[in-house]
Amino acid sequence: MTQTTTSASAGMQLRGRGILLLITLCGAAFLEGIDIAMFNIALPAIRADLVLETTELQWILSGYVIAYGGFMILGGRIGDRFGRRRVFLAALAVFIAFSMSGGLADEGWMLVVARFATGITAAFMMPAGLAIISTGFAMGAARNRAVLIYAGIGAAGFSLGLIAGGLLTAIGWRWVFFAPVTLGVVILIAGLALLPRDSTDLDRTPFDVPGAVLLTAGIVLTVLTVEQAAHGLGPVVVVAATGAAAAIVAFGARQRRAPFPLIPKVFLRSRPLLRAYLGAASLAAGFAGFQFIVVLYLQELRGWTALQTALAMLVLAIDALLAPTLTPRLVSRYGTWPVAIGGLALAVVSYALFLPVAPDWTYAMMFPSFLALGLAFTFAYGPLTIAATDDVADEDQGLTSGILYTSFQFGAALGLAAASAALTVVAEAGGAPMAAYRTALWVPLGMGLLGVAAVVVARPNRLDRPGGPSAHQREARETGPRECVGSSH
C-alpha cells in the first residue's frame, strides 16, 4: 500500500503548509501529554467528590495505561493498512467524545470506561501522527527537525500538564476532562484541512487478524500484570501473568507460520531498532518511577501542595525550548546515537543526584536533579524517535511508531510498579518513610543504567534495517515468492 503521505508530500519542508501540518500534529502530541498529567493531579479531588474506594481510583488510572499500552502496535498497523489520516481523525473524534463523557460522569465505573476508551484512541492516534511526520517530510534535516519538535512538544505537554492540572483542579476536577475537549476540537478542524489524504487504493495484503488479537491480548495482560504486581501477588496477577505468557507464546508461533505476519522478522533482527525500543523503555521506566517517588516525597513527607510540586518540576519542560533548537544541531554534528546515549546518561546522573535526599532538602538542592532530567529528555527522546523511524519503509512507519510508543508505555508501567513495590517492601518491614524513598530511588537509577548498557552493547551490525522496500517484501525475498501472493506493494 502506497499512501499519499508518501507520494504527495515526501518532499515537504518546514515552511508554509508543512509548518501548519506540524503544528497540528504537535497539538495532538501535546494533547496526549497534558491529558495524562492533568488527570494524575486531579485524582485526589475525584476521589473526594465521588467518594471512591482506592480500588476504583486505581482502575481509573490503570484503565488508561492498559488500553494505551495494549493497543498501540495494533493501532499503528491499522493506520498503515487503512490510512493514517482516517485513523488519526477517527481516533481523535472518539477521544473528544469520551473525554466529554468523563467530565459528565457521576459514577466511578463511568470514569473507568471513559479512560479505557481514551487510552485506546490515543493508541491509534499517536502512531498515526508520528507516521504522517516520518513519511511526510523530506528525509534528512527537515524530517529530523520535525520529529525532534514533535517529540519535544509531546514531552513538554506532560510537564506543563502538571501545572494545568493543578490550576484546573482548583476550579473543579471536571475541567480536567473538558479542557482537552476544546483543544481536541481545534486540532480536529485543523486536521481535516491539513492532513494529507490517504490513497483510495485499498491494501490487498492479508491482515494478520489472529496475530493482532494475540499480540494485543499479550501486551494488555502483561501491562496489567506489571501494574497489579505493585499491590501484591494476588490471583489477578497470577491469572494475568499466565494469560500473558500463553498469548505471547501463541503469537510467536503464529508469526512463524503466517504468510504476512503482523511484525515481520526483520524488525526483531534489526539492532538499530532494538536499541531504539530498549532505550525508549528504559527512559520511560526511570522517569515514571522517579516522578512517583518525588511526588510522594514532596507532598506526603514535606507537605507541599499539588501546585507547588508541579511548579517545582516545571524545569523538566526545558526540552520544549531546547529540543527544537539545540538538539537538531547536536544530531547534525555528532549523529543520532551519540546524542541519544548522552541523554540516557544524563538521566542516570539525575537519579544519582537525588539519592542523598533528606527531609530538610531545599529546592536548590533538588534543582540540579530536575534540570539534568529535563536535559535527558531533550537529548534522548527525540533522537530515539528518529532512530525508531529512520530508514524504515513508509508502509511500515505506523508499525514501528506503535512499537516505539508501546516501549515507552510498557517501560513506564514497569518503572512505576517497581518503584511502588520497593516503597511497599520497606514500609511493611517497618522502615521509616525516608528510608523507603532512598531505597526506591535505586529503581530508576538501575533502570537508567540498564538502558545505557542496552544501547551501548546492542551496536548496529550488518543486518538490514527494515528500510527501502516494505518489511513484507524483504521477508518475501528470504522465504520465497509464496509470501508475495496477494501483495499490492
Description:
This protein is mainly alpha-helical and 489 residues long. It folds into 2 domains: 4-204 and 271-462, Growth Hormone, Chain: A (Up-down Bundle), CATH 1.20.1250.20; 209-257. The chain contains 21 helices and no strands. The protein has helices at residues 4-7, 17-50, 54-70, 72-82, 84-104, 108-136, 141-171, 175-194, 209-229, 235-257, 265-269, 271-301, 306-312, 319-322, 326-334, 336-354, 363-389, 397-428, 433-440, 442-457, 471-479. The radius of gyration is 22 Å and the shape is globular.
Please give the CATH architecture of the largest domain: Up-down Bundle
Largest sheet: none
The gyration radius over C-alpha positions equals: 22 Å
What's the CATH H-level superfamily name of the largest domain?
Answer: MFS general substrate transporter like domains
Give the ordered list of helices and strands.
HHHHHHHHHHHHHHHHHHHHH
Q: What is CATH's topology name of the largest domain? A: Growth Hormone, Chain: A
Pfam families: MFS_1 (PF07690)
Transmembrane segments: 20-45, 57-75, 87-104, 116-140, 147-169, 175-195, 207-226, 232-253, 274-298, 304-322, 334-355, 361-382, 403-427, 439-458
Protein name: MFS transporter
Region (Disordered): 463-489
